[in-house]
Amino acid sequence: MFWLIPTIAVYTIVLGILSITSSFVDRRGYFAHGCARAWSWLILATTGVEVTVDGLDRIARGKTYVFVANHQSIYDIPVLFWSLPFQLRIIAKESLGRFPMLGPHLKRTGHMLVDRSHPDRSGIFGWAARLTANGLSLIIFPEGTRSRTGHLGKFKGGSIMLAMQAGLPLVPISVVGSRHVMKKGELTTKPGHVRVIVHDPIVPPANPHPSTADVRALANQVREVIRPAVEAEASRSRPEAVTATSRRSSGDPGAKAGTSD
Predict the structure, then answer these.
(1) Quick check: pTM over 0.85?
(2) Per residue in 7-38, pLDDT tens?
(3) Interatomic CA distance for residues 127 and 138, integer angstroms
(4) Which tens digits make up the pLDDT trace of 220-235?
(5) Is 210 within 8 Å of 161 (Cβ atoms)?
(6) Beta carbons of 154 and 224 less than 8 angstroms apart
(7) Nearest to 66 by CA among 213, 164, 194
(8) Among 229, 255, 253, 251, which Cα is nearest to 242's?
(9) Residues 247 and 255: beta-carbon distance below 8 Å
(10) Any bridge partners for residue 198, and if so which?
(11) Per-residue DSSP letters for the chain?
(12) In DSSP terms, which residues pair with 136 in a beta bridge?
């Protein structure tokens, strides 16, 4: 901790300054995204996290996608930014736009700030056109919060609806193992291995006014593509936790060798 925190702080500040400064010149945000990818690689390298990616051949470089991923850890952000060779942007709350430096920076570099209580359809189409024109893609986490157990939560429809209205293809992403690197509610990290699985794109039917049922059906379809690999890992981890707990309760000295989920 004596060297890790200062090291992360230094390159976060340096790359943050470079990213913000570049956005005044590069309005597409390409250089800023390069800073984000460099920061992601440094985070993974300094904390000993290895990432493997399967399925990149299923998608075309330079095309605009909405990447839909499960959410297990704060590490999902650097894992995906480093693993996916696309110009990624995020959906953020409109309130972030009021933060000095951060808000204007997000707007200049192509991120989408949304007032979820008063969505602006015309703004959505303009934003989607900008994504396509500049070769940008979006990444969303429809669970809305990190999973503590590894099992998928319910997918919220808001972000999915934006993709449907914009007519953009969705790419399901399974992120497996990131919760063991940094668990929800903890500030410590552990070296580990994370697997990213890129699934085949799903092209939603063109529908500027999708019904609630349409959105829910598509959200469930994407969730079912992501779920098997994620929950298979969660199921494999659970028996280890049960075994460790049983050993401790029985006084088995071998319990120290067990692992806890």
Answers:
(1) no
(2) 889 999 999 999 999 988 888 899 999 999 99
(3) 11
(4) 999 999 999 998 888 8
(5) yes
(6) no
(7) 164
(8) 255
(9) yes
(10) 173
(11) -TTHHHHHHHHHHHHHHHHHHHTTT-TT-HHHHHHHHHHHHHHHHHTTEEEEEE-GGGS-TT---EEEE----TTHHHHHHHHS-SEEEEEEEGGGGGSTTHHHHHHHTTPEEE-TTS--HHHHHHHHHHHHHTTEEEEE-TT-S--SSSS--PPPSHHHHHHHHHTPPEEEEEEESGGGTS-TT------EEEEEEEPPPB-PPP-SS--HHHHHHHHHHHHHHHHHHHHHHHHHHHHHHHHHHHHHHHT-GGGGG----
(12) 87
Instruction: Report the pLDDT value the prediction gives residue 108, as an integer from 0 to 100.
Output: 81
pLDDT tens track for 111-151: 777 765 555 554 556 677 778 888 899 998 988 778 777 78
Structure tokens at 52: 């493997």
Radius of gyration of the CA atoms of the chain, in A? 20
The first and second tokens of residue 54, run together, are 């399967």
Joined tokens for residue 31 = 């250089």
Instruction: Tell me the residue type at 131.
Output: L
